[in-house]
Amino acid sequence: MKKRFLRQKALMLGVATATLLACAQASAWTLKEASAPYSGTTINAIFLDRPGYAAAEKLIPQFEKETGIKVKWDVIPYESTREKEVLNFASGGAQDIVLVDVVWLGEFASNKWLVPISKFTGDPKLADPNLNLKDFFPILLDSFGTWNKVIYGLPFDNYSGLLFYNKCMLKDAGFSEPPKTWDELLNTYAPKLTNPVKNQYAFALQSRRGETQSADSFMRVLWPNGGSLLDAKFKANLLSPQSQEGLEYRQKLMKYMPPGIVDFDHAEAVNALAQGQVAMITEWSAFYPTLTDPTKSKIGSCLGVATEPRGAAGLKPALGGFSLAVNAKSSAKKQAASWLFIQWITSEQMAKPYLEAGGVPARMSLYKDPAIEQKYPFVKPMVESWQGGVPDYRPRFPEWPAISEVIGEWGTKMMLGQVSVKDGAQTIDTKVDAILDKAGYYDGKKPLLK
Predict the structure, then answer these.
(1) Which residues contact 275 (CB under 8 A, 6 or more apart)?
(2) Would you indicate the residue range of the signal peptide (predicted)?
(3) Which H or E run contains 307?
(4) Can you give the pTM of this predicted structure?
(5) Tens-place pLDDT, residues 278-326
(6) Superfamily of domain 160-319+396-439
(7) How is the chain split into domains, by residue range?
(8) Is residue 352 left, alpha or beta, with left meaning phi > 0 and alpha meaning psi from -120 to 50?
(9) Which residues have a Cβ under 8 Å from the Cβ of 333 and sit 6 or more positions away?
């Protein structure tokens, strides 16, 4: 009897001890305590003039109050961002938080400009036990933050291409729903939604020379038709029948787009829909807050959102976005402070506040809430797009910036009719193969895929 009592007492003591240890472990890490050694530190970042960054700016005071870490940012145009960051890396400029576009990751990581997050996740003083990397959409963490199987950044400003449309304009033209396919958009919807006399057009495809031309315009018409920039052997593929069909499609669509479409960037395309000049645009999910802002948009309750149209190859929407990473050339103190901010702004805890402030979080758990889907109409088509998207929508290797310049130049010439689609594609293919050959992809010096 006495032995049984002692065994029960020991068992209860063990359970109590385990419970106390679990509670101690659960409460062992707090952002406030983790950041105490870095209080008073100022970290520098580059932001864009887009809703996701404005959302972060609204939340940053909360982080600063909790940690004592000061976050300073410069807002610059997207077109200048990569160049400014590369100059910072080369000169040791003041940039601690690195904004990494999906197509800059290979270049930044290969040059050892970024710190692998394992440096921080392996440090119990800096690593939030609730980080939960598995909660990020795999396509976003892999595409925006992972290079050669090493994670360098966490998804921050996340995009899927969506079809935004004016329900009222479509209804007036006799349509009760948006086009489900690109073929429908061109042949059924576009003629009825275009009236140049009234300065009204069916569609606007942002196509300004530069990354907007190469990614948002050129690549957008390749994938749905089964085309691609490169084939399985890593050779240029724009003369394939599928790629040619996609590029020819864009030329046919031009007569239903506003004059000067080659000068449209994101702001111009979004504004054209917001002001009633066009009925439809394919744009990044991050612009939903702009289109619902009554101070910037007249569309109001007429706004509709759907997945991008399907092509012969199915649903192949645009994929884009950024991660936040830590500059390998910053001091150890600034690196730690930067990581604490990145970990916080992309956390599960901050996902809902970030969404409500106008950002687009990459956390799967957030979008499982039916109330979120009901409140934000763009969520359902965006999640569907991320689940079936194209991870290599744009090549992420270091040579992309050079290739993007080639496409920007010759893609624009195609749209303007200065060169035929076939001849323009041939020129791009030749130049792309030359860039990749010089980089060593065809002589075994570099692996074909990352």
Answers:
(1) 297, 298
(2) 1-28
(3) strand 303-307
(4) 0.84
(5) 999 999 998 999 999 999 999 999 999 999 999 999 999 998 899 999 9
(6) Periplasmic binding protein-like II (3.40.190.10)
(7) 32-159+320-387, 160-319+396-439
(8) alpha
(9) 37, 38, 41
